[in-house]
Specification:
Layout (H helix, E strand, L loop, with lengths): L1 E10 L2 E11 L4 E6 L5 H9 L6 E6 L2 E2 L5 H10 L1 E5 L10 H11 L7 H10 L15 H13 L5 E5 L7 H18 L2 E5 L11 E6 L2 E5 L33
Parallel strand pairs: 3-8, 3-9, 6-7, 7-8
Antiparallel strand pairs: 1-2, 1-4, 4-5, 9-10
Helix pairs in contact: 3-5, 5-6
Bound molecules: adenosine-5'-triphosphate and magnesium ion.
Adenosine-5'-triphosphate (ATP) binds next to helix 1.
């Protein structure tokens, strides 16, 4: 669906990414790991349409997104892509509810989204904090609000940059289970940059990036720590469900 084709990226002559090939198939979770400074956020920026690569192409449904005009590309960013950031990037002066609705308000093609916001609030178990402001929310609540904001426009792909980097293990488990649930139920694909090996439990594909070179890896079950599978609505009740491996689709 989204194809990074032989992409190179340099900043002021300094090579950051070299001949990157990476595909996000439909209905898949793709995990990228690598050391700090290896180019992970740069790659997500290129995939999102925000950062034009020095060389190579990014294809969305077969079309080169960097050959589109600014309007077409920003529509793609708003409609087809959702972002989840390590530090949530919520607007502090808007309530949780207003933060979730914000991208829909920016989308000139969106209809009234209130029903969908209400559905997401229930799905993510956020009813109790929905009129509170981000500075008063816990890390897990902030990240769930950020996830709701990322998927309100029903994107095809969510790009997540260290989405559990700022969370404790239990809360990280809930977010990991939530990504799997969103992928299964809503057919949204994920490209996740993370240091969290438990993400490999739900991954369909796993890549490592080293010194700007990306390589696909085997997912070895022995190196993966077990993760609790919790349904979002059940997280508050703390019920654990066994993780299940999703069948692969390309
Ligand atoms: N706009 C820019 N101008 C110049 N250099 C940049 C720019 N953006 C990123 N870099 C450099 O590119 C390299 C890769 O940065 P990037 O943020 O992609 O790394 P990362 O793998 O996401 O690291 P981290 O795990 O710490 O988030 C770094 O050395 C960074 O300083
Ligand atoms: Mg980064």
């Amino acid at each position: 669906m989204l194809v990074v084709d032989n992409v190179c990226m340099s900043f002021k002559g300094r090579k950051i990414l070299e001949n990157i090939n990476f595909t996000v198939p439909e209905n898949s979770i793709n995990v990228i790991m690598g050391k700090s400074g290896s180019g992970k956020s740069t790659l997500l920026g290129i995939m999102s349409g925000l950062l034009k690569p020095t060389k190579g192409r990014v294809l969305y449904l077969g079309k080169d997104i960097y050959r589109w005009g600014d309007f077409r590309r920003s529509h793609f960013r708003n409609k087809s892509i959702g972002f989840v950031f390590q530090f949530f990037n919520l607007l502090p002066d808007l309530t949780a509810y207003q933060n979730i609705l914000y991208p829909a308000a920016l989308n000139p093609f969106s209809r009234n989204k209130r029903k969908e916001v209400d559905y997401l609030i229930g799905y993510l178990g956020l009813e109790h904090i929905i009129h509170n402001y981000p500075p008063t929310l816990s890390g897990g609540e902030l990240q769930r609000v950020a996830i709701a904001r990322a998927i309100i426009n029903k994107p095809k792909i969510v790009l997540a940059d260290e989405p559990t980097g700022n969370l404790d293990d239990d809360t990280a488990d809930q977010i990991i289970a939530l990504f799997k649930d969103i992928c299964d139920k809503q057919g949204i694909s994920f490209a996740v940059v993370t240091h969290e090996t438990r993400f490999l439990n739900i991954a369909d594909a796993y890549y490592r990036i080293e010194k700007g070179v990306l390589q696909k890896q085997e997912i070895s079950q022995t190196t993966v720590e077990p993760v609790m599978k919790q349904k979002p609505s059940e997280t508050l009740k703390n019920r654990t469900v066994k993780a299940t491996k999703k069948k692969k689709k390309n």
